[in-house]
Amino acid sequence: MIRLDDLEGHWRLSRVIRDARAGITGRFEGACVWRPDARGLVQEETGLLHYGAAPPMQAARRYLWRAEGAELQVFFDDGRPFHIVPRGGAEALHDCPPDIYRVRYDFDDAAEFRTSWHVTGPRKDAVIDSHFIKA
């Protein structure tokens, strides 16, 4: 299982968004940095998003990562709980009514990892695959 300090540092990030409901595929290319804060790590993603026929746009995200015992917990940047990173390929869930977000992490290699999100709801049906490579 990956530890919090395994994530610290700079990563290259590529993401593919397949939005079945809208019939659009998007691509994000950028960077992800995990840096220490008082309670764990702050994850910041920045890059360029190409989504369907729209002009490319700058995109950014920020999350808080915390080690609680043997678990890694992820929070939104305002401190609200997001999900617990699953052990051994299990699925994690973020219930955001009326939508449901399911994620699988693949930490087979300390120098790179993948996530796959499946988002479903009344107006959502998307798969979001991300690939992180240690820079």
Fold and architecture overview:
The protein has 135 residues and is mainly beta. It is built from one helix and ten strands. The longest helix has 4 residues, at 4-7. Helices cover 3% and strands 70% of the residues. Strand 1 (9-19) and strand 2 (24-36) form a beta hairpin. A ten-stranded antiparallel β-sheet has the order 6-5-4-3-2-1-10-9-8-7. It has one helix at 4-7, and strands at 9-19, 24-36, 41-51, 57-68, 71-76, 81-84, 91-96, 99-109, 112-121, 124-134.
Radius of gyration: 15 Å
Question: Could you spell the SSE succession in H and E letters?
Answer: HEEEEEEEEEE
Main beta sheet: strand number and arrangement? 10 strands, antiparallel
In the predicted model, the low-confidence regions spanning at least 5 consecutive residues are: none
Strand order of the largest sheet: 6-5-4-3-2-1-10-9-8-7
Describe the global form: globular
How would you state the average pLDDT, rounded? 94
Strand content: over 45%
Secondary structure class reads: mainly beta
Alpha-carbon distance between the two ends: 20 Å
What is the overall number of helices? 1
Helix-residue proportion = under 10%
The beta-strand count equals 10
